[in-house]
Amino acid sequence: MTIEMFLAAVIGGAIGLAELVARYRDKPVAALLSPGGLLFVFVNASAATVALIAVTAAGWTFGLPDTTPQASLTVIRVIAAGIGSAAVLRMSFQPAQSRASGTGPIALLNGILRIADGELERKRALSRLSHNDLSGLSFERDHAALAELCCHLMREFDLAEAQRLGGLAAELSHRDDLTDADKLDCWGLELTRLVGERALRQAARRLRDRPRDEPRPAAPEERPASPVPDNDYPMETTPPRPSVAKTSRLAASTNGRTERKSFSDA
After folding, report:
1. Beta-carbon neighbour count of residue 108 at 10 Å?
2. Which residues, 6 or more positions from 55, have their beta carbon under 8 angstroms from its beta carbon?
3. What is the Cα–Cα distance from 58 to 42, expressed in whole angstroms?
């Protein structure tokens, strides 16, 4: 039973670890080793272990026949406990006609993730402010190019993240109480959350190495205009022919009906 409990805990902990890595893409190791990250993995692993104990005590066979080998039944119980516990922990209950946030086991995981968020944000801010990786750059001149480089480094870019970057850029551009260096630091902190410090450092180095004054493309050569013909001699113009009105082949008769004229009538 000890081995089965260990395997169920591994499955539950792996699910929690995968969620942490997907959430903190810039520093997954730091997120895992933080107290909030360790607590998050521990809660998922403990839930899987408790679920396996409950399933085994209840004697659930999941509809398998009685002739099923015990080893196969144990494997099914371990997998069901590991995946089922993760699903139960992420359940949320909410009234049908209410727009308030739901409650349930997911509130526990959200609280732990908020703890991990605070710890990672403090570490990220200290690491970012202790190095001047964006020296030589300007927010007004380089923030758009820096964001494009960082965004194209990612294979998949969420639309919500792009909208948040656009809103932050517009807000910083209209702030008169911040200097250009302050705006650049805020912009760098936001980009660090997306791609990490190393990628941001390489993107800033790439921008610094580029020449500032790029040569403009040469204008296309203009062809000389065609010579204007000399109009010293008056040109003979042919008078227009008078238009000949064609009479209709249908003419009104005296008795109110239309009669057809012959083609010889002019």
Report:
1. 13
2. 77, 80, 81
3. 24
Which residues, 6+ apart, have CB-to-CB distance to 77 below 8 Å? 4, 52, 55, 56, 60, 62
β-bridge partners, 103:
93
Among candidates 189, 186, 188, 191, which has minimal Cα distance to 175?
Answer: 186
Q: How far apart are CA 55 and CA 57, in angstroms?
A: 6
pLDDT digits (tens, 9 = 90+) for 183-195: 888 888 778 777 7
C-alpha distance from residue 96 to each of 92, 93, 102, 108 (Å): 12, 9, 10, 22
pLDDT in tens, 27-83: 788 888 888 889 999 999 999 999 999 998 888 888 888 888 888 889 999 999 999
Q: Which of 116-120, 156-160, 171-175 has the lowest mean pLDDT?
A: 156-160
Task: Identify residue 93 by its one-letter amino acid code.
Answer: F
Write the DSSP string, 44-85: HHHHHHHHHHHHHHHT--TT--TTS-HHHHHHHHHHHHHHHH
What is the reported pTM?
A: 0.57
Give the position of tokens 């015990």: 70
Q: Quick one: which of 155, 137, 158 has its CA closest to 200?
A: 137
The CA–CA distances, whole Å, from 248 to 4, 190, 242 equal: 105, 83, 19
